Amino acid sequence: MDPTIEVRALRKRYRSTVAVDGLSFTVRAGEVTGFVGPNGAGKSTTMRLILGLDTPDGGQALVNGRSYRSLRTPLTQVGAVLDASALHPGRRARDHLLWMAYSNGISKRRVSDVLEQVGLASAARRRAGSFSLGMQQRLGIAAALLGDPPVLMFDEPVNGLDPDGIVWIRNLMRSLAAEGRAVLVSSHLMGELEDTADHLIAIGRGRLIADTSVAELLATASKDRIEVTTAQRTDATTVLANAGATVTVAGPSTVVVEGLAGDQMSQLLSEARVPFSEMRRHRASLEEAYMDLTRGAIEFAAPPEDPR
Length: 308
Ligand SMILES: Nc1ncnc2c1ncn2[C@@H]1O[C@H](COP(=O)(O)OP(=O)(O)OP(=O)(O)O)[C@@H](O)[C@H]1O
Hints:
The chain has 308 residues and is of the alpha/beta class. It contains 9 helices and 13 strands.
């Protein structure tokens, strides 16, 4: 069976807050799946429910077809980094991993392997309490990889990483997926997932908003947008907006136009004697595609009402 995470009609309520509200999705093998939504959308809660760290009020979450709590050797089935700073500060990095390996029946050799893999080999004897946030993230990732699991979950993994670290983690996630693993990574920033995710699960207020391939999402968002290069940006904006288009400034001499066909735009600009040098299909960013996706979901970003 291919490695997967399956979430089915999952529900979790904390007093008056419904954190996860009937959520269903599948994370497939061989892909990086981005798990996105604004702060408080329910991403971390969903991940905790998948890992059996919390009990759902309804529905179920399965890892490789079984609930986490019924897995006999969980670290060899799923590795996760939810809160990288949750470390024993006095324990040395290597000892932290050795203890985990020992208590999970994993060979000692894996400890050196994963320390090497995350770039912490030279810091193996340092105490975790002296680690920067970025090093803590790397140690958390080493722990997640220890059991060589086919399923991996990362909650906001770029937090605290410097630009080199961000590139490193992107490449790591891509290579883990290329090895056939199922990788779920949460973020509230779309830009972080632009070059990483193959698939996207978007949620808002605990509910599913979209379950889509990134390529499809970008193609749809790019389809009706045309980029126009003109030295007379303001005039072009006026002419095209008057004809009913939505015009967005994209650079000193570039506007992105939505709602008009290319030949209509050339005609309008020529008639108004507004010169332009180039007209081409706009390649939407993941951020733009995400805004399209969530437009209309009016309550999406609003905080839940306090009933008191
Ligand atoms: N242990 C808890 N007790 C009470 N409320 C909680 C608890 N954990 C989460 N919540 C609430 O559940 C909702 C979902 O929170 P969650 O942390 O899952 O969102 P998130 O999408 O991970 O947000 P972020 O991007 O900020 O990490 C929020 O309203 C949060 O306040």
